[in-house]
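pasting for ref
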Amino acid sequence: MRDETRYVTKAAVSLEGYDSLTVPVHRASTIRYADAASFAGRFERGADSYVYGLYGTPTHRYLEYKITELEGGARTVLAPSGQAAITVTFLALLHAGDTVLVPDTVYGPVRDFAGQELKALGIEAVFYDPCDLDALAALVDDRTRMIWVESPGSITLEVQDLSAIVRLAREKGVLVGCDNTWASPLNFRPLDHGADIVVEALSKHFCGHSDVLMGSVTVRDDALGYSLKAAFGRMGIGVSPDDCVLVLRGLETLPARLTRAAASAATVAGWLTRHAHVDRVLFPPLPGSPGHDLWARDFSGSCGVLTFSVAEPVREAVFEALDALELISIGASWGGTKSLIAPTSVKSLRSARPWTGPAYLLRLSVGLEHSDDLVADLERFFAALDTAGNRPPAKGGA
């Protein structure tokens, strides 16, 4: 054998006796087949076999199987982001002439996708009030293929009655999908409540370190799961095994991180409710927050994500005052170890029930910092609100 050949030839390494505590990274685009016959019959293999890197390596299977177990489902498909997990599921299951019912509080990019790509494909997205079951029931007709649920809802965190929505859907033969990213399967399992599909943005709680983009789709029925897996493959949707390992690593600390973040968020939320500059705090574990009773009935825990608004006299100074924060970063996403705050306008994201609240809400993702330090940082924000709010208006120049 020539030297050039030796450089590209695999060495034979025995794995006997090797059992690592960690998941190994298997990177591959090409899968080698034992013979021509097995290559010719590769598409007759089972859904979990190895055909090509796009359809997964053993590293992908570790993560798929673990998520399936945690969700209590039959099969999981991975996607490059939470958004992709939702949109590709829509593309795989909806067809021209179908209607999908979407909560008015859905994640903004999903709303945008529904109004652009779905509309162009002849699929109608109808937005419904997430808290009005009677209004939702009136929207279901012969064209309805799916009811989408996001609970708690994006930004304003309304909790939906998933069990009641499932009962409504079953009567009409309609699928139910649920974005469960806020809760994670640790705190809520939509499939146990009858949903057909559950999506997680793994970028958030599962990964937990703000350095991976990934999403998952888990289903109750294996036939539906196989159909989704095939559709994802046809669309060329795949994820990196290196990212799978990062998500698997984060998953091991998810219970500890969520418990810590939820406890700190409860402390911060309670403090915010007593602050003179706070108009309202939206946090499902908080009595009086939209859907609190449903949260108490169905959920086993919380996370660190809450939303609040400031009182009318100082609202105009919010953007300037946010720059006073030293510990809490301004940024999108949530679920990482470091706290984030995001000023968000929801008026343009509501249609079923027009938004009449403040122009901007502040979504706070509480990380793993000590709650006392977070409160001290928020005090800096409120002090800056005081300063800016009491400043006389600038006089016009000559």
